[in-house]
Amino acid sequence: MDQQNLPDEPEWLKNHNPPPGDGRGNPGWHKGMKSPNPSGRKPEFGVARTKITSMLMDNVGGILEKQIAKALEGDSGAATLVLSRVMAPLKADSERVRFHFDPALPISQQVEQVLAAIAAGAVAPDIGKQIIDAIAALSTVRMNEELELRVKTLEMKTVGA
Question: Can you give the pLDDT at residue 151?
Answer without folding.
Answer: 93
